[in-house]
Amino acid sequence: MASNISSILGVHVCSGAFDSGHDIDLFGSLQSEGNNPKPVRASVIFGHNGSGKSTIAREIAAISRGESDGYLYDENNGALSLADNERAGIRVFDEDYVELKTRIKGDGLDSIVMLGKQVAAADAIEEIEKSISDVKAEIEALDSKIAELEKGSNSVYELEKKAKESVKSAGWAERRQKITGTKPNLGKNSWIDVQNAKTDENRETLGQRFEVKLSIFEKARAAGQDEISPVPSIDFAPYDEGYLTELLSRQIDNPELSEREQRILELVKNDNQPIVDAAVDVFSSEDTRVCPMCQQEVSQEHKESIVASIRKVLNKAVEEFRAELSAASLLRLDETIDIPDQVTESAKASLKDAFLEVNRFIDEYNSRIELRKANIYTAQSADALGLGTALEKLEIALESVNSEIGSINDAIKGRKTLEEGLLRLNDEISRTDARQDIESWKTTEGNLANAKDSKVNKLMEQRRLLSEKEQQEAALKQIGIAVDVINSYLTNVYFDSDRFKLVLDGEQYKVLSHGQSVAPDNISTGERNVLALCYFFTEGGEGKEQGHADDDPQYVVLDDPISSFDMENRVGVCSLIRERAECILQSNDESKITVLTHDSSVMHDLQKVFEDIRMLTMSKSFAFNTRKLVGTATEAVTKGTEYAALLNRAYRFANSTTEDLDESYVIGNILRRIVEGYGTFNYGIGVEELFRDQDFAGRLGSHLPYIKSAMYRLMLNDESHLRDRVSTMNPSDRFERFSYEDKRSCAQCVLLMLYKLDQTHVKRQLKGISIAELQRQVAAWETRFSGQPA
Prior knowledge:
Elements: E1 10-13, E2 22-25, E3 40-46, H1 53-65, E4 71-73, H2 84-88, E5 90-93, H3 95-101, E6 102-107, E7 110-115, H4 117-150, H5 156-169, H6 172-180, H7 188-196, H8 203-221, H9 241-248, H10 259-283, H11 300-313, H12 316-327, H13 345-374, H14 387-433, H15 435-478, H16 483-494, E8 501-505, E9 508-513, E10 516-517, H17 525-539, E11 555-559, H18 567-587, E12 592-597, H19 600-617, E13 623-630, E14 633-636, H20 641-655, H21 661-683, H22 687-692, H23 694-700, H24 704-715, H25 733-736, H26 740-757, H27 759-765, H28 771-784
Parallel strand pairs: 3-12, 3-13, 5-11, 11-12
Antiparallel strand pairs: 1-2, 1-4, 6-7, 7-9, 8-9, 9-10, 13-14
Keywords: Coiled coil
Family: Belongs to the SMC family. SbcC subfamily.
Organism: Propionimicrobium lymphophilum ACS-093-V-SCH5
C-alpha cells in the first residue's frame, strides 16, 4: 500500500504569520512537466529572514507529532490523513531540533556532548534535581519549625504544662475530692477526660448544676457500697449422670479362650485384674527366670505364651473401654467461691450445701469408675445416685445468690451514675476554665503533628525523587548513539577526521579536536549546529538494521541547515546533504526532501546537489523544484595546451610550502577546469559521473572518500564548466575562503585522482617533471589520503 508521504504537495499553516490559515506549496507539482514526467521528490524553498520559513518548519513538525490544526495536503488540496508510522516518518531539522536534541556542557576543560534521548534524560535529571533542592529546603524549614514547637517557651511541652496548671488552679482536684473522697492527681487518663469534656454551657450554669448534684450524691453515698460482681456460672455439661450409668453398666464380650485363658478371665471377673496386670509386667521382663507364685523355672517361650494369653483376654476393645472409663472421671467443683457479704446467710448456706452434695456424688461416681476399671468384664447394675438432681439444686442456689447480688447493684446503681455525672461536670468546668490555654496547646500540638507528617511525606518524596534520579541516570548510561556514523558525517563536513570528533570516555562522549580536548566556550554555534545535523541524519536509523536506515518512506525537512556556518563548513554541509539526500531518495521511491534557506548562494549550491543526484545516481528518475516564499505563498524559481598549463600550475601549487596569494586566489577555478576538461575530453562526461562511476570508483580504491570530499568542495563552489568553454579565471568568492592548507589538499587529491585513473596521461601532461619526482610525490599523497576518514 502506497504511503501518503509521496502525495505531499504542500502544507496548510495556521500559526505565526500564517495564523489565518494559508496553503504553502512546497513542491510546485507532484510530476515534472514534459513528455517524460518524473515525480517531484525534492524541493528548495528560498525565503528572506523573517519571511516565515521557521514557522512552516515548526508547523510540519507539529503535524508529525499530531499537535497542530494544520495539515499536509495533496495535489487536490485535500488534507492527507496520516497514519502513526507516516507521522513518525516526517522529520524536521530546525532550531528547535538543535535546542532539543543537543547539549554541550563543560567538565573542566572538556566538552561533554549529549544527543537525542540523552538530552531528554539530562533535562529530566536537571528538573528532578531542582525538585530535590526544593524538597530539601522544605524539609529544612520543617525541621526548624519542629524544633521550635518541641523546645522553648512556646513548645508543645511548655504549653501543655501551662494548660494543666490552669486546670489545677481552677479547683479540679478539690471538686473531685468531694466526689471520690480521696485527693486525686491529674494523671494521664484524667487529663484526657478533661480535654474531651467540651461543652457549650457557660461556666455559671455548670457550677450551679454541680452543686445541686453534689448534694444529692452525698446523701446517696451514705446509704450503700459500690456495685458488686455476681458469682460465676458453672458448666454442667461434663456431669451427665445418664452417660455415667450407661458406661458403668456396659457389657464387654468374652473372647473365645483356651482353658488357661479362661482361668485368666475368671481372675479378672473375680476382681483379681490387678494380679493379671502384674503378671504382664513380670513375664515381660528379661530378668524373670522363676514364677513368683509357684517358684518354678519358666522358659522364654513359656513367658511369651503367658503374656500372649493375658493380652488376648485384655484385647483392644477392653483397652479402649478402659480409656473411656478414665476419660469419664469427674472433676470436683470448687467450693471456695467468694460470695459477697451483702448476700443473705440462707442463700449462702443453700449454695454451700448444694456444692457439698454435688461433690459427694462426684466422688462416688469416680470410685465406681475405678472399680469398673479393676473389673473390666463385670458390669455394674446399680441405679443412678442422684447427681442430676443435685446439679439442678446447685443451679437454683447459684441463681438465688446472683439474684440477690443483682438487687443490691440496682440499689446502688443510681448513686454510681450520679457520681459519674459529677465527675464529668467537674471535667467540663475545668475544661471551660482552662479553655484558652488548652486550645492554644492543642493547636500547637496539631501544628507539630502536621509538621512531622509533612516531613515524613517530604522525606518520602525526596526518596522518590532520588530514586527517579537514579533511574534516569541509569537510563542515561544505557542510551547509546551511533558515534562512528556521526564521526564519519563530521569527517565529511570538515574534510578532516580529527577536526571535530566524538570520543567515548567512560560513560560520556567528549569532543576532541586533533586529539585535544575542547572547552565548551571554544565550540561555536556553527559547530554545534553541524553536530546536530549529523545526529539528525543518524537518528533516522535508530532501531534499524545497518544498511536499512532509510528503507521506510520519509519526508525530511531541513530549515536553514547552513544558515550560520562559515564558508568552509557550508561546503562540507552541502557535501553531507548531498550524500544523505542521495541515500534517502534512492532507498525508497516514496521519500521526499525539502530544504529551506535564506541564502541565495546556498540555494544555488543545493540546486547543484539535487541536479547531481538526479543526473548521475538515479538515472534521472526524479525531479526537484526550487520555489521562493513571497508573502503567504510560494512561487517557482526558474533554474589542450591550456589544459596542460593548468595541470602544471596545479602541480606546483600542490607541492608548494608557502602560499602564493595570486595563485591561491584562482586555484579553485583551475582545479575545476582541469577535472571537467579531463572528463569531457576523455569520456564525454562531467566530473560527477567521473568520480561516481563504479568502474572509476573501483580504480580509486581506498582514496575514494577523500577524493569525493575534495570534488564536492570544488563543484559546489562555482558554476563555470569547461564543457561550456567558460575560460574566465575569476575565482569563486566561496572557494576563496578556504585556508591555504585546504586548497593545497584539494590540489593534491585532484592530481592523485588523475594519476590513479591514467598515470600515463599525467606523466605526459607534466613533461617538465621527472618521473621519479612525480612518483615520489604521488606516493606521499597516496599515504596521506589512504583509508576511510573517520
